[in-house]
Design brief:
- This protein is about 55% helix and about 15% strand.
- The strands form 2 sheets. A 5-stranded mixed beta sheet has the order 3-2-1-4-5. Strands 6-7 form a two-stranded antiparallel sheet.
- It is globular.
Length: about 350
């Protein structure tokens, strides 16, 4: 693969972005260039690229994943056929020595240098499907309402335990909880309505919903995370992305720690997998036996639940990969144990 000739680093901001353009580290073509975070600002940015001879076919534009602040720019650049790489901020941060100045100019320069050094590992951004984007928006809104409901319930509980009570405050919290529950139900209905608009989504979500402990919410979040069941469908990759994959920490004979998952990645999916694991270890016989066996071996509770979450994720990945529904009491056979005819 031929290397890109220009590497553009963009430090994303709410009102404006800062860019650095260079062909190799230490030789920036543009040290600092600011442009507004709106369509007319994007046009100014493109004029800067043209001014310095940046060919869209031989350049990569890299930025950090900062949520909605950079979303409009990503859509605009992809519509103009630029190659856009959006990588996790922590990954970019860890590529550099953590000392020195910290400002937009330095950040954009480091992002450009990161794109140069890790060109073969960049994640090239593409917009998600319209349905997937809408489902993601509804899931995010639902999560916020659930947090508000939990906060209101905790506040109401505290008020009810006070010696000097106020009926007006209690009534307002109670009404707020009822309203939030109604809105959450509306969002869930709208999520299912969107899922049912696509026949493949409808079938796969219905299949995943039959897996013990897995409900519509976990299936819908998995749909969004895999961009409509099209990306990251290998179990090891998906487990690492979610943050439930245990990693070794040892060196020689003196450095050793128990295997531990990173805990990074989409927290909502990780939470739902944990809740699913807690459910099946209480209500489903195979998982009850597994939990009891590991507990008798002295394994920590968190480790056992994480193992169960990995088992559930492995089942879901296999169902999506093979396009087959969940089969209760299914027993897999190790291919190495099969005898050749």
């Amino acid at each position: 693969m031929e290397r890109f000739k220009h590497f553009v680093g963009i430090d994303v901001g709410e009102a404006q972005h800062t860019c650095t353009i260079f062909s190799h580290p230490g030789a920036p073509l543009v040290a600092t260039e600011d442009f507004a975070n709106r369509p007319d600002g994007f046009e100014v940015f493109e004029q800067v690229l043209l001014k310095y001879g940046v060919d869209k076919q031989q350049a990569v534009i890299c930025m950090e994943a900062t949520g909605v602040y950079g979303e409009a720019l990503c859509y605009w650049l992809v519509s103009k056929n630029y190659r856009v790489a959006v990588d996790p901020p922590l990954r970019i941060k860890r590529a550099f020595y953590p000392k020195g100045h910290k400002n937009d100019r330095v950040d954009s320069k480091q992002i450009a240098e990161y794109a140069y050094r890790f060109e073969d590992q960049l994640y090239f951004w593409q917009p998600k499907g319209h349905l997937v984007e809408q489902i993601a928006t509804l899931l995010g809104a639902r999560e916020q309402l659930v947090e508000q409901k939990t906060a209101s319930m905790n506040a109401l509980t505290a008020l009810q335990k006070k010696i000097v009570k106020n009926e007006v405050a209690q009534r307002i919290y109670q009404e707020n909880i009822i309203t939030l529950e109604s809105h959450i139900e509306q969002l869930e209905q709208e999520i299912m309505k969107l899922i049912n608009q696509d026949q493949q989504y409808k079938i796969l979500v219905a299949w995943l919903d039959t897996v013990p402990g897995v409900g519509m919410l976990l299936a819908a979040n998995l749909l969004v995370l895999t961009d409509g069941f099209t990306k990251h469908l290998k179990y090891p990759t998906l487990a690492a992305m979610i943050g439930i994959c245990p990693y070794q920490f040892r060196s020689g004979s003196s450095v050793w720690k128990p295997d531990k998952s990173a805990g990074f990645g989409p927290a909502r999916v990780r939470k739902l997998l944990h809740l699913a694991a807690r459910s099946v270890k209480t209500h489903k016989a195979p998982f009850i036996k597994y939990y009891a066996r590991k507990e008798a071996e002295g394994k920590p509770t968190k480790l056992i639940l994480n193992n169960i979450a990995n088992k559930l994720l492995r089942i879901m990945c296999a169902m999506i990969r093979d396009q087959k529904p969940y089969i209760k009491n299914y027993v897999s056979v190790n291919p190495r144990l099969l005898k050749n005819p």
